[in-house]
Amino acid sequence: MIIPHLIRRLGLVAVVGLVFAQAEEKQDHLRALLITGGCCHNYEFQSKALIEGVAKEAKVEWKVVN
């Protein structure tokens, strides 16, 4: 009875590995949503600073909603 469980687990690991490998190949950047708003902060400056800071470390496609 151990063999069928082992085969299922190995199959699952293989499928998950293939899915992650294909996901890494297709997507070369992250997508991020930044939602800001309110009355008491400089959201325009903070959004720009955050986007520029992250851009130094990763390739990110931003959507900013104020």
Automatic annotation (TrEMBL):
This is ThuA-like domain-containing protein.
